[in-house]
Amino acid sequence: MKTDLKISPSLLAADFSNLELELEKVNQSDADWLHIDIMDGVFVPNISFGFPVLKYVAKLSQKPLDVHLMIVQPEKFLREVKELGTMMMNVHYEACVHLHRVIQQIKDAGMKAGVTLNPSTPVSMLEDIINDVDMVLLMSVNPGFGGQKFIENTINKVRALRSLIDRKQADVLIEVDGGVNLETGARLVEAGVDVLVTGSTVFKAPDFREMVHQLKSLAH
Ligand code: DX5
Ligand code: ZN
């Protein structure tokens, strides 16, 4: 069993009327990263928050930023993402015509590079890029909204990705995002996931810290 499971709480599920308090909860917990969902209303049918707000979020967060860009042409915002102090910049496979170039640009800017797959995009599309990325983020819901139901086929995709990583001897983390709770989380850990993104499960829990602790304990 894994002992190094990471938890990345998704800010999208936080109470925006009191972001400082919500970020304090994250800071005080065993969460490893802070997951930030940026949307443009084009790549996904929703808009979340932009850089003027995120500048303050970044200032208040003591956790490394795991930024998930659900936008077209994400390379246009490379500088803004970098200026937040981002640790991991995740771009969608479906949003990048020249994915290899974008991955190199992210790494040249001094960030780790993640590639994200929609539920309908097969893991096999990563065959020729897997050795260039630091992480693969598998969407287990259609991106754009929190609180959706986990898509079961994600478990098969985690297994397929684990086997691609092993075959290519790649040094790549597997992250899953959407509908993650204690039940789906346990099965994802068993399938070989390294990082669980979780929004509603932690932010709507009566005790944020305790829920993060329980999710982390799935690895033991
Ligand atoms: C969806 C976002 C997710 C979302 C997850 O587009 O990428 O990060 O916040 O929310 P839950 O955990 O509630 O499904
Ligand atoms: Zn996300």
TrEMBL record:
Task: Specify the protein name.
Answer: Ribulose-phosphate 3-epimerase
GO molecular function terms attached to this record: D-ribulose-phosphate 3-epimerase activity
Q: Which superkingdom is the protein from?
A: Bacteria
Which parts of the sequence bind a divalent metal cation? H35, D37, H68, D177
User: Which gene produces this protein?
Assistant: rpe
What are the EC numbers?
5.1.3.1
- Please state what class of enzyme this protein is: isomerase
| Textual note on the cofactor | Binds 1 divalent metal cation per subunit.
Quick one: which pathway?
Answer: Carbohydrate degradation
Where do the annotations place substrate binding? S10, H68, G144, F145, G146, G147, D177, G178, G179, G199, S200
Listed under catalytic activity are: D-ribulose 5-phosphate = D-xylulose 5-phosphate
* Gene3D superfamilies with a match to the protein in the record: Aldolase class I
Q: Which UniProt keywords apply?
A: Carbohydrate metabolism, Isomerase, Metal-binding
Q: Which cofactor does it need?
A: Co(2+); Mn(2+); Fe(2+); a divalent metal cation
Q: Which residues form the active site?
A: D37, D177
Q: What does this protein do?
A: Catalyzes the reversible epimerization of D-ribulose 5-phosphate to D-xylulose 5-phosphate.
As for family, the record states: Belongs to the ribulose-phosphate 3-epimerase family.
